[in-house]
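Bench log. Compound arrived from synthesis this morning; before running ITC I wanted a structural hypothesis for how pyridoxal-5'-phosphate sits in the protein. Inputs:
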Amino acid sequence: MSHALMHPFSEVGKSEADYINIVSAKDSTLVDANGKTYLDGMASLWYCQVGHGRQELIEAITDQLNQLATYNIFDPFTNDRAREAADLIAAKSPLSDGRVFLGCSGSEAVDTALKLARMVQQRRGHGEKQIILRRTHGYHGTNFGGTTAQGLAPNREGWGDLVPHFIEVPNDNIEEASKIFAEHGDRIAAVISEPVQGAGGVWPPEDGYLQGLRKLCDQHGSLLIFDEVICGFGRTGSWFASQTFGVTPDLITFAKGVTSGYQPLSGVIVSSEVADALTEPGFLLRTGYTYSGHPCAAAAAVANINLIESDGLVDRANHIGKKTVEGFDALVADGVIKSYRGVGAIWAADVGRDSAEVKMAMLEKGVFCRGVGESIVWCPPLIMTDEEIGTFIEVLHAVLS
Ligand SMILES: Cc1ncc(COP(=O)(O)O)c(C=O)c1O
């Protein structure tokens, strides 16, 4: 078997033959090369909101390929799909009169947001504001900015010097954040935070924490960046988690669920106030990607957002949450799990032991979830049926009993 392919977040020496080769998928079910089926309890990698194999998306992308397969949107060019996607994304967000910058990956969105935050501070006359506050457990992708912004220490190690001027604040402790603002407030450009921390193990914010960050940023002229790469597009039971938690940031990063993964697309939504600092005639925004505004990715976003709307998937996330809680309550009552946490359709169950083996045993029984520390993570497609949620709970019960 070929051995050229290097897998992300994987042992480089692992043989290609030891990977599970997924050959097809429909709705919430995956099929491997041996014909074995799996329930996709992670919506792939936290992104496939509308489920697999949706013809509406496939047709929209195919139509776009036939119309205009590719062209860039660097000045002087634009295209209809990119414009339409940006309008729709802004309209669904709490920054509806803001502007939208497009990229391909969450990592690109994060690094762009960090650059924009510093640029905006400079243009407002605060060149001294360069510090970015990150949170313990945070995950913000793997480019240099995002790597530095991560609150997961192992992911920051081994790459040499990272980006300067980052300070970590303990996860949910607003007093500690206040102390850091008291000491460095005049030099803090921005705070970056996932509203619900995802890859770090699914940690919803403590009550009032995000509001506290908003207040500190307002008091010190710092910008609040919500990294909604996982949370956006219905995952927490609203279009954006900013709406779920009632806190409006200055910048929002998004990716994943914006296209349900059918095409790679990401971006940053900036508030109109932030954008104002960038609109002076003659000022050139010297950042961007070859595939920013790619018409096929944008076509996928438009079709996907329309599908989330027509299928009522934002509400469906809350229903999935209700069913998940019912199942988890039963597992707690049976003494099978210790506790659980989550919101909408993103959850983690504390299984009280290393989750790696639990995850593999579940996979054996045809259910794919992620394991983080002692937690089993559940982030299904938003079309997951009640019966399939029941299967997940049964399999978790069987594996842990
Ligand atoms: C919150 C968050 N930000 C950024 C990223 C990076 O996205 P990507 O892997 O598309 O670069 C991720 C990926 O999981 C994420 O969860």
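What the model suggests: The chain is about 40% helix and 15% strand. The pocket of pyridoxal-5'-phosphate is lined by residues 105-107, 110, 139-141, 194, 198-199, 227, 229-230, 255 (CB under 6 Å).
ITC booked for Thursday regardless.
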